[in-house]
Predict the 3D structure of the following.
Amino acid sequence: MLYHLLVPLAETFGVLNVFRYITFRTAGATLTALLISLLFGPLLIRQLSRLRVGQPIREIGPSHQHKQGTPTMGGLLILISLTVSVLLWADLESRAIWTVLMLTLGYGALGFFDDYRKIRNRNSAGLSARSKLLWQTLLALGVGVLLLTDPGFDAELQVPFFKDFTPYIGWLYLPLAVLVIVFISNGVNLTDGLDGLAIGPVMIAAGAFLGLSYAAGHAQIADYLAVKAVPGSGQLAILCGALVGSGLGFLWFNTSPAQVFMGDVGALALGGALATIAVLIRQELLLMIVGGIFVVEALTVIIQVVSFRITGRRVFLMAPIHHHFEKLGWAEQKIVVRFWIISIVLALLSLSTLKIR
């Protein structure tokens, strides 16, 4: 909105020329999202508490009964600050921006309904896994179809660590895009089990993809780094900045002991947003490294379920894996900080693959 309002005035007021630059608007989006989160966070938490939107705690697993009743659905704060910030600072004629926003809000709506069911029934069971997966798949299919129908789309797969190995996969890009979006969305949701655990890696991944999106949208930089040039994708750097800012604001209230939990409304949406950005800039395989924490959390659940059904034995003391470490006696804060450290290392490793090829 600011871009469309102020850039035309730059010819008269030269200082407004800064609004042409993606870097400036990315910084503005980051700070705006942070400010909105900090200003409206206390109000939202009070309102959620007044409505008794408390988090149901599972009876099995590590004891978290002291968290019983802590307001959930705090992901609404992230979605509000993210959306307002993007609408203010991004080029609203960008197809990429609207694709990510619509998927994010769609997954947020799905998560909201899931959280509502949990609160209404006063237990940790919301929507059935089958119905949730169905809606996630349908929404991700929409993104895949938009991608394939884009006149500038090129179905070449970017493979990390390989400079010239870019296999053309054609229509197979559709199931790949759907798989990545659904898998990472659920991976973030499974990671969201301890105070601050999910939002840290989300911000780190968003920071990495901020740089990748900007590079993909800049022909010269993309050519230098040998990444896929995707015209218009530079606008996604603004959205990534807003993700970082809204995440920082949410962490202010979600750090241990948490005043509010993200809930599915936030976790599903954030995972979907990161995955859709990765798909749009053709870095979905690199996301598997950047978001390695989410991948491992999801895989441990799959391994645990398959192992128990086939052999009757469990591989982990409890899945997802952060609960395994809780069972080993690790303090919650230690798990969270160490997972953040791993996320930072994975992000740096992922960015280094741009030159180690």
